């Protein structure tokens, strides 16, 4: 019995010590400033601000090491080369391009994907990006730009671009919401005249109030 009493007293002392050292102690949490995350996203090169947010510009992504937008993206892959700028590869042979040619194979420069189903696999040629068509050349199968202006109707001038096209309108006209047709620009909204402005198709005309005449610059009133 004396031994048991000693053990009980020892356990009680331990519990009392634990409670007295742990109770009532508050560990304040370190709170980061609310603007910390936002400020960090806006630091470094190649940062764009669409709307009210912020992020890497198109063609760039965050570098894991620095957390800054310094890692270029090559949408078509660089094969055995390295991506040195958005959609620009440095190839092993020293050439630069949107991608690097792979060793000759059945699928051309974009290599092969494996399509597997029911336990069997077969090689399938990769397709070209939108705005490009696959063509056989002296150097093998290549993806070449499609000239959309051959089949696209622009009310103004059609300008072919790599992977797409753009419609442009002449002076005094602006592109409509459909990005193909042109509409008259109301120059009078920019208040180019000192007194009165009359819009016309493709142009405008200034006039003055009674008691004034139009200056030689065709905009001011004297």
Automatic annotation (TrEMBL):
Keywords: Disulfide bond, EGF-like domain, Glycoprotein, Secreted, Signal. One of its GO terms (molecular function) is calcium ion binding. Residues 145-183, 184-218 form the EGF-like domain. Pfam families: EGF_CA (PF07645). Residues 1-24 form the signal peptide. PANTHER family: VON WILLEBRAND FACTOR C AND EGF DOMAIN-CONTAINING PROTEIN (PTHR47333). This is VWCE protein. The lineage of its organism: Eukaryota, Metazoa, Chordata, Craniata, Vertebrata. The gene is Vwce_1.
């Amino acid at each position: 019995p004396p031994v048991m009493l000693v053990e009980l007293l020892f356990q009680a002392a331990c519990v009392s010590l634990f409670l007295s050292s742990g109770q009532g102690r508050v560990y304040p949490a370190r709170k980061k400033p609310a603007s910390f995350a936002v400020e960090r996203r806006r630091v470094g090169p190649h940062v764009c601000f669409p709307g009210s947010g912020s992020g890497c510009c198109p063609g760039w992504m965050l570098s894991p090491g620095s957390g800054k937008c310094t890692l270029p993206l090559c949408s078509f892959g660089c094969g055995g080369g390295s991506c040195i700028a958005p959609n620009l590869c440095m190839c092993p042979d020293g050439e630069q391009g949107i991608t690097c040619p792979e060793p000759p194979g059945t699928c051309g420069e974009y290599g092969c994907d494996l399509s597997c189903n029911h336990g069997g696999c077969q090689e399938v040629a990769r397709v070209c990006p939108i705005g490009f068509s696959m063509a056989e050349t002296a150097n093998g199968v290549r993806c070449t730009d499609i000239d959309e202006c051959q089949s696209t109707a622009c009310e103004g001038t059609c300008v072919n671009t790599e992977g797409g096209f753009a419609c442009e309108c002449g002076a005094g006209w602006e592109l409509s919401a459909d990005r193909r047709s042109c509409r008259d620009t109301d120059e009078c909204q920019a208040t180019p005249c000192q007194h009165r402005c009359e819009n016309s198709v493709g142009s405008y005309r200034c006039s003055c109030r009674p008691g004034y005449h139009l200056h030689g610059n065709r905009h001011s009133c004297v």
